[in-house]
Every structure is written in C-alpha cells, then in structure tokens.
Amino acid sequence: MVTREILSSTGSVMLVRVQLAAGFKGDVDQHPEEQLSYIEKGAVEFEVNGEKRTLREGDTQYIPSNVEHQVKVIEECVILDVFTPIRRDLLT
C-alpha cells in the first residue's frame, strides 16, 4: 500500500510524505525531476541505476534526472521525497 501527501509544492521544489507498507515493491520508475529521499521511519532497499542500497531511518538517497530506480520496503516506512522541479504528475 502507498499513501502520498503533498506537503509543499512552492517555486520549483516539491516535498511529499510517502507511507509504504512492509513488503511493497514499486515499479521501476524514471522521471525528468531530480529526487532526494529521506527515510523518516523504517527501512527500504533502493536500486538506482542498477546499484542497490539498504536505507534506514535518517539515511538519504539522491536520484538524478532520468535515472531508473526502484524501491523495495523491508519494514513499514515513511519517506520524505523532495523533487525539483515539481512533479506535475503527482498534482493530479
């Protein structure tokens, strides 16, 4: 299960709180916006451009523009995602 809450979308920056259930595995994603993810709670495995990293509370992951990435949730988590520019597809 995925729950998204847009906390801010001002200027060219967007902040989104994402809650993910344990066991969730996202589709491979790629978008023109840069992304910085901060793990507020829980643990996830990020695969970015073929490289896997396990992240826990307090860790961050940078995802450059147009790079394939995927998330696998190890334990229920809350992620704060920062996008620049704003991801218009999340506004609809």
Could you characterize the architecture of this molecule?
The structure is a single chain. With 92 residues, the protein is mainly β. The chain has a single domain (2-90), classed as Jelly Rolls (Sandwich), CATH 2.60.120. The chain is built from no helices and six strands. It has strands spanning 2-10, 13-20, 34-48, 51-56, 60-63, 69-84. Strands 1, 2, 3, 4, 5 and 6 form a six-stranded antiparallel beta sheet that branches. A hairpin with a 2-residue loop joins strand 3 and strand 4 (51-56). The two termini are 19 Å apart.
Produce a short descriptive summary.
With 92 residues, the chain is mainly beta. The chain has strands spanning 2-10, 13-20, 34-48, 51-56, 60-63, 69-84.
Which features would summarize this protein structure in a list?
92 residues; mainly beta; Jelly Rolls; 6-stranded antiparallel beta sheet; 0% helix
> Cα-atom Rg, whole angstroms?
12 Å
By DSSP (H or I, 4+ residues per run), the number of helices equals 0
Q: Stretches where pLDDT falls below 50 for ≥5 residues?
A: none
CATH topology: Jelly Rolls
What is the number of E strands? Answer: 6
**How large is the share of residues in beta strands?**
over 45%
Q: Mean pLDDT across all residues, rounded? A: 96
Helix-strand makeup class? mainly beta
Domain Cupin type-2: 17-83
Protein name: Cupin domain-containing protein
InterPro entries: Bacilysin_H2HPP_isomerase, Cupin_2, KdgF, RmlC-like_jellyroll, RmlC_Cupin_sf
